[in-house]
Amino acid sequence: MKAIKYLFATALLVGFTTAAQAQDGSKNDVNAVKQIISSKPADIDKQLKPFYKANKKNTENLVAFGREFLAVKDTAHAREYANYALQASKNKCAPAFLLLGDIEAISDNGGGAAAQYEQAIYVDPKNPEAYYKYANVYRKISPSGAVAKLNELREQRPDIAVDALAGRIYYMSNEFDKALEAYDKADRSKMEERDLSDYAMSAFFKQDYQKALDVAKFGLTKNPRHAAFNRLAFFNSTELKKFDDALMYADALFNKSDSAKFSYYDYTYYGNALIGAKQPEKAIEMYELALKQEDLDNKAKRAGVVKQLSDAYRDKEDYINAIKHYKDYLSNMEKPTANDLAALAGLHMQHGSTLTAEAQAEAFRNADAAYADLAEKYENAVEYATFMRARVNGQMDPDQSKGLAKPYYEKLVELIGPKAELDNTDKARLKESYHYLISYYFIQKNDKETAKQYAQKMLVIDPENDIAKQVLDQ
User: Fold this and answer.
1) Which end of the chain has the lower number of beta carbons within 10 A, N or C?
2) 258 pairs with which residues across the strands?
């Protein structure tokens, strides 16, 4: 009995050794074929002939040879070896059909690729790769149809996270609502890292920042050095105004993540988080780094960063640099909006409020010119621009001795006064205009009749106005 056991154990050992040697030999053949292909010899078919003969019944190696050809985009030879594998298996080699599908996919023949993947599923209905590849090419035609194919996999392989794969298909098709719906059904603990990343990105794109942050943080429990998870935790914490957390994740992204590559967007968000944390000087450093990145490749992107740089200088009350960069922002805009132009005037006003004497007057003149430009370029902003010019000129002539604001308040009366219906803004602007004109004519010009005319107009919209009543009593 002991002799039999010994012989049986020896046979097992010999069998294992033989199998291991054969496996090593197969791997050596694949490596040798890879080297031949990479050297691109003129007689490649001749050099490969011995390897084909040695492996003509080894479908695994034949497919591996084909894949090495596909890696260098030699689809003709890749197809040849896939067909060799099918001949050897009597059309029962799912990896060969997968290879043929991949060949069609890189040739932009989605229908042909799907047909080959369908054959792979028929041969091996429990192979998840075939379902996913089918869904991946079919998503361009119909993401819902692609997901329907994945649901067939659920029946064959209940252990596969089909909902996560469905989420991946919808994510790649930019259908983020459906991606979120699918990912929400999946078990996060069984999801691949790429799906957790896409899950968080889908939530980020849909501005569900709390969910995106939660998913990213879960991903970090699995891989704390994952750049995408740290980036998403950083971005979403910034959006949620959790600036201390955002800076912690920013540090992890820039200093404690594996294989992290940075874009202007990363530096821009870093600046935003620093602004939120009341650190404008450090934010300026980040925005300036963002402007140096190669992926900042068009004027619109650049304009956005320059605007944030201007805002950072404004936050530290460095109005000279804020205005300088804001003008750069406007020059990078294809067509600045009315609000854009008004904001430049506002910066000049803020600057003027920090100055005195002629320096202040110069800042206010710049603001006046900016409002004039706004009125010229946007007809629907004329009332607002005229109102603001009246106020700016009033700042430059606080005792009304020069009457600098007078033409603008008179213009406002012409623009608003004839309206059949006045909203609250109209009334407020008219009251301010009438108040200035009453004062100017009554005190500066001693023209009581004109002052009374404006007082009467004031009482129409503000019957209890004390100043108007006093002027009329005079």
Assistant:
1) N
2) 226
